[in-house]
Structure formats: C-alpha cells, structure tokens
C-alpha cells in the first residue's frame, strides 16, 4: 500500500518539483507547530484551571471542616450558620457537599438526597484514614474532592493513649464541583486560538510560497543560461554563484562546454586537414594531366612517365582514404574488439617476414628478439596494425645501413613490444604531437616516402582500445624507441 502511494507520488509530475517540495516542507513546518501549540496551551490551561479550582475548594472545605468540629455538627446538624456556609459553598461552585460521619453515615447532603444513608466508597474510606482525594471526571465535567474532618486533641481531653495534638478523623466532607465554567472558558479560548491559527496558516502559506519561489530562482537561472547556450546565442561559460550546489552544477557544465569546444575545434581541424591532404594528390594529378594536354605531339615516353606519376598520386590518395577509414572505424565507440588468444611471437614473425623486403631495399636490418612466448587476448587485426605501423615507421625514418630491433617481453600482467631504430629520431618538441592525425615532423620528407601522417594516430587508438599504453624515447639523429604495453588478458570495462 505504502509502496503504491510512493509510486503514484513519483508519477505525479508536480511532486517531483523541488519548488513544491520546498513549499510543502516550509508550510508544514510552520503549520504543525502552531496546531500543537494551540492544543498544548488549551490542555495546559485546563489542568491549571482544575488545579486552582481544586485548591480553592479544598481550602474552603478545610475551613468548614474546622467549623464542623467546633459546632459539633456531626452529632447535631441544627447549626444554621454551618448550613448557610455549606449552601453558600455549593452555590458558589455549582456543586454538592455531602458530610459523612465516622460511621460512614451521611449527616448532611446539600442536595438533600442521601441524608441518613451509608456511603462506602473507596475515596471516603481512604479519606477516613486521613488522605485527601481529588478525582477529575473530564467526561462528565466535575471534580470530586474529599477532605477529612479532623479533630485535634486539646490539653484537657488528652489521655495517655491520645496525647495533646493528636489528630483524629471524625468524618469526611465529600464534594463534587462542576467544571462547566472551565469548559466554557476553554471553548472561548479555543475559538480565539482557531482564528489566530487560520491567520497564521494564511501567513505561512504566503511566506512559504514566496520563499520557495525565491529559493528556486538560481536553478531557473541555470536552466535559462543553459538554454541560451543550447540555442546557440552564446558559448560563453555561465555563472550562477548563489549556492554552492549551483556553483558545482555550473562548474561541471562549464567544463563540459570547454570539452565540447575542444572536440568541435579538433573536428574542424580534422576536416580542414583531411580536405587539404586529399586535395594535394588531386592537384598533382591535375597539374600532370594539364601539362600533358597543353602540349601537342607529346612523345610516348613522356606520356608514360607522366602516367606513372599520376598512378603514384592516385595510389597516395587511396592510401590516405584507407588510413582515414581505418582510423574512423577505430574511433567508433561501437566498434567491438574481436578478441581471441593470439601468439604475439608468431604474429610478429609473420609481419616482419612481409616487411623485410621493404627493409632490404633501404638496407635496413630488422631483428626480432623474443624474450619469452606470449599468448595474449587481443584483436589480431588491430594488433597487426600496431606492429606494422611501428616497424614500417622504424624502417621509413631510418638511415642507410640502419637497424631495427623488435623486442617482445612479458610479465604476469602485461606484454611489451619494443620497436627500436637507429634512425633520424624525433625532436623533443614534436614528441607530444606525433600521435595527432596528419602530424608529421617533416611534412615534405614524410610525403616523399609515402607517409600519410595517420599511422601513429591509428596505432595509439588501437593500443588504447586494448587498454594499453604507448611510450616514446627518442634522440634526434640517433634513433627512436616506441614501447607498447598491453594487458595479457582482456580488461572488462
Ligand atoms: P607517417 O605516415 O607520416 O609516417 P605517422 O603517424 O606514422 O605518419 O608518423 C607521424 C610522424 O612521426 C612522421 O611523419 C614522422 O615525422 C614521425 N615518426 C614516426 N615514427 C618515427 C620514427 N621511428 N623515427 C622518426 N620519426 C618518426
């Protein structure tokens, strides 16, 4: 049941509003204490009024009790003075006074009903033993009070058993006084308190409404500012420092904005770079074709020579497009890794076998050093890309008679591929940037040897997809060493 109420409340859109919740909290916090206060004050008044009435009546009764002893009323009820006193008392408090003697016999009843009867009630018997009793009957609206009629033994009546000053209970005065006047006063008080309460409720309602509105305003300002950014009016960072909480939200939003701007900038750079890179071979093709077209009677050898150049440029264009496609595919978050257990040593051997002819052309010696056998859970195609790109670069950017050492090693958690060359090296200032798309230390040289500037971007992306890392150590003129470190088993994200 409670669960269903909660569920329905959740569905109610208005309940999800912070403004409504704040309003309700403030409203209830104002109204509930005021209700408790009214009830508390009334109850307190009632008990105090009953106490005061009781002690007034008790005092009167004690005075009359003394008179009863003095005028020996318990034996002789003819005293008019006492009769008048009792009448006055019962009129004053709108009540009934019953006097009971030591034999529990009623000697006087101001209502005249019970005279001569015997009363055996708990209160009377307790009172006979000297205890005052008070009983407040809330439902019927009266207070029942018993006071003992005590005689103190005087000096001339003193005996050995009862020395002077001994108090003897001779009878009991039993009184019930009406509390109608208290109830009436309480009703008037209650009515007045209710009016005050209604006024308070209205005031609290208005205050809570205004406060909730004011408290929530910074959040409205945030949505407005975010809305403006979303609509594209501005891309300035926003500021709503009113609360610590709003500051946190705004800071998080601003960092997101900066990140989005960086991504947007890099996307724009990328598009510009792609266009430029794709344009270069096409421009060359056009220049070559135009120069052929501009000449008449071109000899067949020249045609052939130009066509070879054109074919080379087309091949370059093709390579760039292939690399771009590989990169885009790698960056796609949905691109799942095709994981299998791969023998890295065998894979490296196969790749080196394929690359060695290129190395031989450049007189570069490629050596594979397998420190141990490595079986790893990796994507074989992406792993081949990593190895191929690194070894190809090590050959491409090497010197005549240079060397490339590919070292494979592993510990219990990771395996490492180290590709060290004795090539031209990479200047310190470029070492951070070489993984960027289209970045080349020496643009013309790279292009000359058929580089697209995408190889290391693809490599790094593939390494990261395997939750690995890539590190470079390089000294210009001496050579470079790329170290790739990848977990042996697949790390589940
Ligand atoms: P490219 O297709 O131009 O080789 P890469 O992304 O593979 O593109 O490499 C980026 C740049 O880093 C290269 O242009 C080159 O300047 C530099 N570079 C990469 N590997 C090496 C290396 N082993 N030795 C020297 N320079 C290198």
UniProtKB/TrEMBL annotation:
It catalyses: ATP + protein L-histidine = ADP + protein N-phospho-L-histidine. One of its GO terms (cellular component) is plasma membrane. Its main location: membrane. It is an enzyme of class 2 (transferase). Residues 273-490 form the Histidine kinase domain. The chain crosses the membrane at residues 20-41, 195-216. Keywords: Kinase, Membrane, Phosphoprotein, Transferase, Transmembrane, Transmembrane helix, Two-component regulatory system. The keyword DNA damage does not apply. Its EC number is 2.7.13.3. One of its GO terms (molecular function) is phosphoprotein phosphatase activity. Pfam families: HATPase_c (PF02518), HisKA (PF00512). GO terms for biological process: cellular response to phosphate starvation. It is found in: Membrane. It comes from the Bacteria. This is histidine kinase. It comes from Parablautia intestinalis.
């Amino acid at each position: 049941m409670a669960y269903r109420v909660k569920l329905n409340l959740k569905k109610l859109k208005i309940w999800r509003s912070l403004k409504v919740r704040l309003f309700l909290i403030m409203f209830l916090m104002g109204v509930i204490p005021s209700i408790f206060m009214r009830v508390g004050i009334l109850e307190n008044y009632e008990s105090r009024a009953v106490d005061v009435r009781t002690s007034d009546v008790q005092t009167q009764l004690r005075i009359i009790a003394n008179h009863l002893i003095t005028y020996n009323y318990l034996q002789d009820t003819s005293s008019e003075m006492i009769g008048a006193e009792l009448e006055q008392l019962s009129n004053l408090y709108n009540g009934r006074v019953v006097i009971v003697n030591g034999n529990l016999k009623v000697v006087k009843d101001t209502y005249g009903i019970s005279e001569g009867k015997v009363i055996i009630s708990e209160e009377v018997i307790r009172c006979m033993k000297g205890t005052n009793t008070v009983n407040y009957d809330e439902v019927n609206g009266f207070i029942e009070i018993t006071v003992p009629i005590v005689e103190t033994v005087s000096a001339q009546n003193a005996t050995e058993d009862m020395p002077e000053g001994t108090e003897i209970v001779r009878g009991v005065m039993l009184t019930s006084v009406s509390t109608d006047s208290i109830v009436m006063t309480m009703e008037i008080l209650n009515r007045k308190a209710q009016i005050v309460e209604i006024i308070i409720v209205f005031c609290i309602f208005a205050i809570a409404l205004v406060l909730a509105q004011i408290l929530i305003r910074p959040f409205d300002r945030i949505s407005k500012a975010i809305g403006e950014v979303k609509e594209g009016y501005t891309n300035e960072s926003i500021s709503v420092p009113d609360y610590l909480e709003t500051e946190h939200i705004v800071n998080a939003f601003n960092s997101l904005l900066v990140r989005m701007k960086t991504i947007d900038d890099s996307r724009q750079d990328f598009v510009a770079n792609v266009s430029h890179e794709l344009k270069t071979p096409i421009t060359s093709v056009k220049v070559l074709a135009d120069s052929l077209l501009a000449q008449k009677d071109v000899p067949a050898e020249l045609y052939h020579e130009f066509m070879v150049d054109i074919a080379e440029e087309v091949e370059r264009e093709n390579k760039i497009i292939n690399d771009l496609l590989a990169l885009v595919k790698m960056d796609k978050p949905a691109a799942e890794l095709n994981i299998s257990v791969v023998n890295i040593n065998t894979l490296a051997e196969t790749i080196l076998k394929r690359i060695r002819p290129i190395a031989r052309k450049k007189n570069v010696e490629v050596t594979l050093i397998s420190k141990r056998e490595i079986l790893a859970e990796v994507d074989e195609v992406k792993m081949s890309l990593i190895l191929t790109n690194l070894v190809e670069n090590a050959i491409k950017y090497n010197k005549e008679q240079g060397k490339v050492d590919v070292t494979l090693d592993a510990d219990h958690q990771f395996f490492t591929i180290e590709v060290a060359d004795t090539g031209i090296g990479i200047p310190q200032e470029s070492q951070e940037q070489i993984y960027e798309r289209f970045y080349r230390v020496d643009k013309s040289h790279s292009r000359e040897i058929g580089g697209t500037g995408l190889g290391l971007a693809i490599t790094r992306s593939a390494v990261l997809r395997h939750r690995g890392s890539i590190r470079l150590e390089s000294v210009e003129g001496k050579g470079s060493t790329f170290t790739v470190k990848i977990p042996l088993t697949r790390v589940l994200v």
